[in-house]
Every structure is written in C-alpha cells, then in structure tokens.
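Inputs:
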Amino acid sequence: MPELPEVETIRRGLEKYLPGRKISGAEIRLPKLLINCNADEFSDAVSGCSFTAVRRVGKILILDCGALCIFVRLGMTGQLTFRNPETEDSNKFSISPLTGLQRAQGQFAPDKHTHIIMHNSDGTSLCYRDIRQFGRWYLYSAEEAAASPELKALGPDPFSPDYTLERLRTGLKKTRRAVKTALLDQSVVCGLGNIYVDEVLFASGIRPDRPASSLSDDETEAVFSNIVPILQSSIDNRGTTFSDYRDADGSKGDNAASLKAYGRYGRPCTVCGGEMLRMSVGGRTSTWCPVCQH
DNA sequence: ACCTCGACCTGGGCGC
DNA sequence: TGCGCCCAGGTCGAGG
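Outputs:
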C-alpha cells in the first residue's frame, strides 16, 4: 500500500519523464475514480496541456499541468507508471509475500485493471492501474489546488517545515483515541499508513493501543524524532516497502528487510528476541512487541 | 464535536 | 479441483 515513501519514489520516477510532455488525451475507463469531474470534462481539460512538475504532499501525488493540477490518491493498490512504446512491456506481475499485493514489473500493457491512461503527443503514456479501485483522482485549476479540501484536510507533511514537535504534540494531546489511530489520521500528520505507524511505534517503544493523550513528553518526542528517519530510510531504499515493489521506472527496490515490526507477527523481536504479537487497533492489524513497547 | 465502524473493491490463501 | 470464506487497508460517510 503506497504510503509516503512509496508515493515519493513514484514521484521521483515520474519526475524524470513527465515534465515537458504534452497531453493529447485521457482515456477514462473507470469514471468513478474521478471524484470532482466527469470523464469528458477531465479529458477536455487536460488535452493540450503539458506536464510541468510532479509533486507530493503526504500520500497525494500532484501532477502539475500548467494551469491545471491533478491530484492522484493511489489508495491501496494504485500504480502509476510511465509507458514508452519503444520500451518492451514486461507484463509480468509478482505477488508480495508480505502483503499479498500484486505488483507490476516494469512497464506493462494496459489490462483490465488499467483504469486511466493519459496519452502524450509523443506516443508515451501515463498508465494508472488499480486492482481494488480505491484510488481517487481530482482535477483542479492551479489556483484552486492549494485551497482544495483534500490538501486543507492534511496535517503537516513530515518533510515540510510545518512538521514540528509542538504540532505533533497538539495533535496527539487532544484525542483519547489510540496513538496508532491518531498517527493514521492524516490531519494529525500526513503520509503514514499502517506499515510505518507500526514501525514508528516499535522504534519509539510505545504500545499501539495507548491513548494518544497519555503519551509523556519524552514519548511524544520519540515519535516525533523517529518518523522522519524511518520514512527517509525507506525512501533511500527506493521507497519500497515490498521486496517486489516497482517504482515508476519499473526498477526494483527493497525495504522489506529493514521492517522491524510490520509483517513480523509470530517472529522474534529484533531487539529482545521475544515473540512479536498482533492486535487490532481501530480496525487495523498491528504488530508489536510486548516486551519493548509500553 | 468527537469517535467508531462498515462499505468500497479484488484476488490470494486456506479450510473443507 | 473447487467453492466459500476471510483478509489486506486508505478513505469516507453513516450512525452512535
């Protein structure tokens, strides 16, 4: 599931290919993915525009196209890949042993899960594939984008100057929800999903089900200072949480080996050697160590 | 206003 | 072999 490091890796990949390319049309095969416009409006608006930049805020990928701004939320299984007709399609998919998710290897020909294709005038394209169809696309004018509900709802991105200990403390202090639930709340801090919240709480020595407001100053500071290095480390490993996850290049990355909590249920804790446990917090499976996390 | 929970989806894995 | 069930989880609306 794309969390911040995966989205950032995709962003870096697309940034190498998209800017400067002119969009000739958009093929919308699953219109429900477009949240604030219909297929014709989208296609009409983007046709003739050129990609100018690829940005990211939290888990939202932003495709700047001059006066237009496209937001892409990858949901659970969204894949956004650049396709060059001069490069051979692999059409191979692998299954992650960690998550069971199907991932494309390299560029692939559109299939039944390819729901949006943005065609460029030079024959290349941007393909959106999303097995579970949880993704969402939004179209805004460049002026509207910053004030969009999707961006306004987000708390600080951990890599932005807005991300401060004080803001995180405020976000955690105000709620009695489990700290895990609070950290998954994109209005508290954006970009974390189930995997990295488990990693951050493990590194911080905090049980996932602790009320967020019960964290001491030291614990809050531990969470605050662990988030960026954990995300950065994953980005350094090509932002890949899954051993078979491919970025926009179709290149392989590998961060799974560095995960210390997620997916390690029943296996020994990397710190104390005890058995890692699993519990449900806010409807989400959480893996944790009963010895190291309090 | 705050919070919890089910719905949305598909496909892989597992039990029978 | 195959069927049915359960699970994965980001986000959001409904309901408490």
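Remarks. DSSP finds eight helices and twelve strands in chain A. Residues 5 and 239 of chain A are 4 Å apart (CA to CA).
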